[in-house]
Amino acid sequence: MRLDPVSLRLFVAVMEEQAIARAAVREHIATSAASRRLAELEAQLKVQLFARSNRGIAPTPAAYTLLGLARSVLGEIDGIARQMREYGSGMRGHVRMVANISAITQFLPAQLQGFMAQHPEVQVHLQEKVSSEIALAVAQNAADFGILNAGRYGGDLSYLPYRQDELILIAPQGHPLTQQEEVGMQQALAYDFVGAHVGSVINALLTRSAAQLDMPLRLRIQVTSYDALCLMVAAGLGVGVLPRQSAALYAGTLAITALRLNEPWAQRQLVLCLRSLEALPPVARALVEHLIAPAAPAGPAASGLPAYAPDALSRSKNPLDN
């Protein structure tokens, strides 16, 4: 049985108006067409809904039962239309995003809190991955978009500027390096290091820098998170490298000192990657616009120059992870 919502809505109008003619006017349909629809509805349901006489129509007990059912069904249909409109306006939906640990620990908590406070019906599913895996997930449509380090990752992806990221060196309080505010890798490599997890960009940067300086990298221990790295450094097991704002989360509670790292690779660009901004679902596009809005620098970009050129990734020599 295929019930027509138009006929159900007309039936509800007849019950409420107690007259076919008035219901027909309300539903913008000819009276004859309204009578025909009611007769077809009775034939479909195989039950008499109205007793007809010269004085008009009188609802049967079946009609009163159908009235409650019809109102419930029509309410559900109206709810579907309303929720779909909300999806279309970006007010409700599900967003799949992936990001590296630098973005997750430094920038995303406050930004996501602000966005979800404005749009409480939006669900954001966030996964942490290294940059090469982020690019792959976006390219394969396993995620709507991702945040990663600028680099060459292949695939037909677009990139938007997100944040500038600075790597620093942390050392235990009282360590010989803490006698100065800025160090280079040539000085730091004289000491043991607490390294990040295998395959991370930080380890790759440290390894390459040591090779360029023809000095050994003494990784005393490797950990899988920034909090573990800070704890190991505070325990005196070595020095470590991590993003400045991530280190700031622990500097007030752990016995560590942050030092500026005087190396060109310490300044990094984080970018947002996606397949196409125009092809994103409205709710995902709204989140992207929320995330990148504060990223515009106050320098040349403010005067109308582009803040970040997507083809800059093709010029990068270091497609590293994390």
TrEMBL record:
Name of the protein in its database record: LysR family transcriptional regulator
Transmembrane segments: none
Organism: Comamonas antarctica
Positions of the HTH lysR-type domain: 1-60
Entries under Pfam families matching the protein: HTH_1, LysR_substrate
Highest taxon in the source lineage: Bacteria
Annotated GO CC locations: cytosol
Swiss-Prot/TrEMBL keywords: DNA-binding, Transcription, Transcription regulation
